[in-house]
Design goal:
single chain; alpha/beta; TIM Barrel; 3 domains; two-stranded antiparallel sheet; 19 helices; about 40% helix; globular
């Protein structure tokens, strides 16, 4: 049997995946029997290339996806397991990944996850120890082979067995504001850089945005990364839920809602229309050059079969007509590319820059930039003095008492600092992810913003929208997420972030050291190459450069 990875990279076929939503309860529940019946029908369908199983979708507790996935996997069908960061910390996620690998599950869709809304005795506490970028990075490291010290820092590290995960990620550009869309594109690129093998876009009903995503990837170094289109079979009830913005990241415009309600009043309650609507989206994805389609919103095989049957009835060029039909955007919605009027798609030679960055040059922001440059630039006098003072202090983790008190007070007043000890202010335009972001996102936004607002009540504007606008005003918006992936060290909580930075203990300093080592290795390779070609013959490689 050909693996999903091989199908994505070695096959010319347009692939089809089907979503299986997990249930709450055990496998003996009546609803589980219905889900298993649906799964068995999908297994028997040769047109379905994989079955994707959700992980506590919508932030609700449900049966673990591998419970439904095992019979499917053992029957010979490719399974994609959704793995999210909302319910487990990094240790739990690593444990889960080892378990999945051991049981033969190699396809993982890595996501940050929806903020919990339900649970036994009320809402569960969210985790979000790492985000989707951190999870992708971890899975990618596992594929290369983890180095493990078994709890003893002085022990010789052992390289663990390599895993073989086919890592997927999700992205969305179905956002209203430039400050929402662009950070999503930056994060998409970061996900691919960190090891994502394929991308699935979020549910959306705007063909121009679907075309824009494909062209953005082609124009920004992601041309070879397979892109899967998301087709959700609507009905009037679900359209109302999507329109009410109760599902994070999913948008149904006023115009589309009116159409859905109108069709729902027909004798068959709109079923024929909604099947055809989904089939048209599928045809559009195929015409745009997507690698496949992800079918969701159904819980029975008849619906899947009808959508596929209708799509097969279309002529090869019909998708060009459908593109102009399915264009349900919102007024003043931001697009990265301008529109090509003839086709209704994107013109890649032009970029719409009509939305300007807000003037965020507040005294606090300007002062923060200046202070960081003066105090925390590697090799500068203040940084050297700070490191020396912290080393000599009674407790190097806290630094001198007076300096620690000043740090705590100033950061509390300016940023509502939570004293995490592993600061990301510099990487997010001097906005604190612990006090401003419900999910503590340090590597770009989650997909749950609603017209610029956080999906969680009480958090206001998305921190990454604010960061983007600050950077755009400075002319540095392209620098967003240029830094290495941030994985926060929880062992530093309650200690001085200043001391940790000066002494090289925070994530920023660790990445800085890794970058220098990596560059040194490149220099060694280049020197060896030059020497072997006689270009610098007789010049020995410096001892400190030979890190291998």
């Amino acid at each position: 049997m050909q693996s999903l990875y091989d199908k994505l990279y070695k096959s010319d076929d347009f692939l089809i995946g089907a979503e299986l939503v997990s249930i709450r309860g055990s496998m003996a529940e009546e609803i589980a029997v219905k889900a298993r019946t649906f799964a068995n029908e999908l297994i028997d369908c040769s047109e379905i290339d994989w079955i994707s199983i959700t992980d506590n979708a919508g932030g609700n507790p449900q049966l673990a996806p591998q419970a439904l996935g095992k019979p499917i996997l053992y029957a010979g069908k490719e399974v994609v397991i959704h793995l999210t960061c909302k319910d487990m910390n990094r240790n739990g996620l690593e444990s889960e990944a080892w378990s999945l690998n051991s049981e033969g599950f190699h396809n993982i869709l890595a996501m940050t996850g929806d903020y919990p809304i339900g649970g036994n005795e009320g809402r569960a506490k969210p985790v979000f120890d790492i985000d989707s970028v951190g999870l992708i990075s971890m899975l990618s490291q596992m594929n290369k082979g983890f180095h493990h010290h078994y709890g003893m820092s002085n022990a010789k590290p052992k390289r663990l067995e390599k895993t073989s995960f086919n890592i997927g990620a999700v992205t969305t550009n179905f956002k209203l504001l430039e400050g929402e869309v662009m950070p999503q594109y930056h994060k998409l690129k970061k996900k691919v850089e960190c090891g994502a093998h394929f991308i699935i876009n979020q549910i959306g009903y705007d063909s121009r945005k679907q075309d824009e995503l494909k062209k953005y990837m082609e124009q920004h170094g992601m041309k070879d990364t397979p892109l899967i289109g998301n087709t959700y079979v609507l009905n009037p009830r679900v359209a109302k839920i999507f329109h009410s913005k109760k599902i994070p990241g999913v948008v149904v415009s006023d115009e589309l809602l009116d159409l859905c309600l109108k069709q729902g009043a027909s004798p068959d309650k709109g079923k024929t229309f909604f099947y055809e609507f989904a089939a048209k989206q599928m045809a559009i994805f195929k015409g745009l050059g997507y690698k496949g389609v992800y079918l969701g919103g159904v819980d029975n095989f008849y619906s899947i079969d009808r959508v596929l049957e209708i799509e097969r009835s279309f002529s090869p060029d019909d998708w060009k007509i459908f593109v102009k039909e399915i264009r349900y955007s919102r007024p003043n919605e931001f697009y990265y590319y301008t529109e090509e009027k003839k086709t209704g798609l994107s013109n890649i030679t032009k970029r719409d820059l009509s939305v300007k960055g807000k003037n965020s040059s507040s005294i606090s922001y300007a002062f923060s930039k200046w202070m960081h440059k003066v105090m925390f630039t590697k090799g500068k006098p203040v940084a050297k003095m700070g490191a020396s003072a912290c080393k000599k202090s009674k407790n190097p983790k806290q630094g001198p008492k007076l300096l620690r008190s000043f740090e705590h007070f100033s950061k509390r007043v300016m940023f509502d600092c939570k004293d995490c000890g592993d600061c990301s202010l510099y990487e997010i335009a001097f906005l604190c992810p612990e006090s401003v972001c419900a999910k503590n996102q340090r590597n770009g936004p989650c997909g749950g913003t609603k017209e610029g607002k956080c999906e969680v009540a009480g958090y206001g504007d998305c921190i990454w929208l604010q960061a983007y606008e600050r950077l755009k005003h400075d002319g540095k918006e392209d620098k967003l997420l240029e830094h290495s992936p941030v994985v926060q060290d929880q062992g530093l909580r309650g200690t001085s972030s200043w001391a940790n930075h000066w002494l090289g203990k925070d994530h920023y300093s660790k990445k800085y050291k890794e970058a220098k080592i990596s560059q040194t290795k490149v220099d060694v390779v280049n020197n060896n190459h030059h020497a072997s070609n006689g270009m610098e013959e007789g010049q020995p490689i410096k001892k400190e450069e030979n890190v291998n």
